[in-house]
Amino acid sequence: MAFSSYLVTPAELEDALKSNARSKLSTSPRTIPICGSWFLPNDPQGRTGLQVFKEGHIPHARFFDLDRVADTSSPYPHMLPSPEVFRDAMRDLGVKKDDTVVVYDTAELGIFSAPRVAWTLKVFGHDAVHILNNFKLWVEQGRATEQGEQEQVEKTDYPLPHLDSSKVVAFEEMKSLVSDHNKEGHEDLHILDARSEGRWKGTDPEPRPGLSSGHMPLSTSVPVPELLDPKTKAFLPPDELRKVFERKGIDPSKPVISSCGTGVTATVIDTALTAAGYGDGGRRIYDGSWTEWAQRVKPTDNLILKDE
Predict the structure, then answer these.
(1) CA separation for the pair 228, 114 (Å, rounded)
(2) What is the rounded distance in angstroms from the CA atom of residue 231 to the CA atom of residue 234?
(3) Farthest CA pair distance, the chain
(4) pLDDT tens-digit profile of 203-259?
(5) To 10 degrees, the CA torsion angle through 211, 212, 214, 215?
(6) Which one of 12, 39, 96, 307 is least enclosed by Cβ atoms within 10 Å?
(7) Closest-CA residue to 111 (of 197, 232, 221, 16)
(8) In angstroms, rounded to a whole number, what is the distance separating the alpha carbons of residues 281 and 61?
C-alpha cells in the first residue's frame, strides 16, 4: 500500500496492515511496523526502548535497537552503522528491500526517536519508509496492541546497501563550515539545534556527565516540543510547522544542517521540514551532534557559545 505522505496516521497504518498477505509463500511487498523507541541515558524512570516495546506494541511489529544497529566502535553513541551492520539488522528483522516500513515511537514520548530510525533507512536507500504520527494516538484510539517479546520472523536476503553521504555531515566538515562562515564566498546555511533552549543557551546541563552545554556559531534553537502538539505529542499540521520555521527566520532557499545531542532528535527537525514542505531538500544531519562537538572542539577554537 502506498501512503500519500511521509507521516502516516493511525487509521492509514491500520488499513495497510489489514491488506498484508498472511501467507508465508506470498512475495508481495508488505507494510512492516517497526518500533524505534529509545530513551535518554538520564531518563528519570530508567526506561529502555526494548522494555517499553515489550509492555505494548503494534501487532507483528519488530524492534529496531538504535544502540546496537550503530557504529559500536565509535566513542559517540549510535553513530550510523556500516552498510554490513545495517544489512544484517534488516535481515534479522525480516524486512525485504521492497517492503514499506512504518516506524513509530513510544506512546509516552509521542515523537522522539522514530524519525532517527526512519532517516537511517533512507540514508541506506530504503525509500519506502514512513513515520507513524503517532503511537500515542494509536493507543488512545483503541487500536490493537500486544505485549511480550518480538515474534519470530523469517530472515530475509536484504541486499548490501550504499550509504548516501549527501545526507550526512561529519565533524571535520562541520567544523570547517562553522569556522569559515564569515569568509567571503562561503556558503550561507542554517544550523538547527533540537535540544532544549536551556541546553542550547548553556544555562542547563547536558544529560551526559562532564559535557559542556551551549551551542555552535550559526545555530538556531528549535526545541522538539515546539514542533509537536502539546496534547497529542504528534507533529503539528504542515501550515503550523511552516510558521514555526518562519518565526525562527529560516530561509527555505538555504541549506539546513540539523543537530541535537546525539543525532536522534535532529531528525525530528528534518522530518518537520519534510512534512511542512519547507525548503528545497538540501538538508543534512550532523551525525555526531553536540556530544561529539563538545568533546572535539578546543577551548581556543571559540566554537562553543553560551548565552549566560
Answers:
(1) 14
(2) 8
(3) 63
(4) 999 988 889 999 999 999 999 999 999 999 999 999 999 999 999 999 999 999 999
(5) -60
(6) 307
(7) 232
(8) 30
